[in-house]
Amino acid sequence: MWKVQWSADGQREISSLSELDSLLDELHAKYQGDRAIIVTIEAPGDGGTLAIGVGRELSVLNYVPASGNPPYLSSVGDLTGDETIIFHFMGQWSEFPIRHAISFESAREAVRYFFKTQRLPDSIIWEKD
């Protein structure tokens, strides 16, 4: 089973891609704008955890290996500047450099690929944190 968590008391175990898609749709609609959140998707076994920002047109992705040890990876988009994009993570504000922002749909496709293969997609540029 895959573990999806979006808050200290908000989590669900899922077993299918359709369940994951439905849950992400629900969370994306519920946590819009200033309420945007980070959702973690933990693969079974040693697949690691992929986090996605939901609730905005732009998203960020972060990957942590199952060991919990580096390298940690973040998505890289094509925006530049000193701005940040903010999401709530487990009740705390988390700021990410805008250069880590990608379209929400690209992030969703990456999550689907991760769910199907337990690997990160080559369609996203990844950089070590």
Describe this structure in words.
Helices cover 22% and strands 40% of the residues. The strands form three sheets. Strands 2-1-3-4-6-7-11 form a seven-stranded antiparallel beta sheet, with helices on one face. A two-stranded antiparallel sheet has the order 5-10. Strands 8-9 form a two-stranded antiparallel ribbon. A hairpin with a 2-residue loop joins strand 1 and strand 2. With 129 residues, it is α+β, with helices and mostly antiparallel strands. The chain has two helices and eleven strands; from the N terminus they run E-E-H-E-E-E-E-E-E-E-E-H-E.
Summarize the structure.
With 129 residues, the protein is α+β, with helices and mostly antiparallel strands.
Features:
alpha+beta, 11 strands, two-stranded antiparallel ribbon, 129 residues
